[in-house]
Sequence to fold (171 residues):
Amino acid sequence: MAVHKIVKYPEPVLTTPAAPVTEFGTAELRQLIADMFETMYGANGVGLAAPQIALSRRITVIDCSVGEDTSQRHVLINPEIIAAEGEQDDEEGCLSVPGFRANVRRALRATARAQDVDGNPVEVTGEGLLARALQHEIDHLNGILFLSHLTALKRDLIKRKIKKLQKNGEW
Ligand code: NI
Fold:
């Protein structure tokens, strides 16, 4: 297994819609998913999308237990949100925007339909953090970062801070 480098905003791959996966059940795909979990756990994340390792493909892994409970591991390929209801407003962060967190309003419950590593249909329904992760990660596959959900004022503040960090070679 291999830990991949997580790319950071403003890498263009993060704001580009990812391409659908068309080949399933391959050793390459299984390895990639194992690597994505390894990379996510290495960064203490609860979700990781392929564009975050510079791979523009519609694949995401989620584990809200951060490796504590295998029943919480989800692999979602070509996922889409098919149902969402309610509302939650809580702090959110992203491994591609490290060090910055902000409140983002999301649906409280969400259901995603996707395919597994063999191409079989899967559905995941979550509430609270899992619902948030589903929405955040599927956003990634559409080239959307949590920054897009903030007010222009908050977004510009974070962008300015990132530019400053970049200038100082700290990003
Ligand atoms: Ni993220």
